[in-house]
3-deoxy-8-phosphooctulonate synthase (Fagus sylvatica), 126 residues
Amino acid sequence: MTRSELFTVAPSYGQGVCDPHQRGIDQVVKLKGTRASDPFFLLAGPNVIESEEHVFRMAKHIKNIASKVGLPLVFKSSFDKANRTSSKSFRGPGMVEGLQILEKVKIAYDIPIVTDVHETIQVISV
């Protein structure tokens, strides 16, 4: 099977579509002239941690979907959305509580986690 048969470009969306039954083969996907290598994965999660219960519910649901289509999941959510348009908007639980919640999700669902940082001092903790 050729690489072009493994991945195609969906004409209406321009996104790579993979055949989940072909996992484990050296795969390459081309998207609008760019090239990415396997593993092709899903980076998904809620924009900000609303609550521990919400993040756990989302992680479980997203992991189930990713598993059904054969894509590895990297879960992403933010402990602080400092770039809100309104200073009165909910920003998240903060770094200490947010990182504790994300660590629990990582352990409970055995998935890698990413989050964003807004200041260089946060990199050490993250």
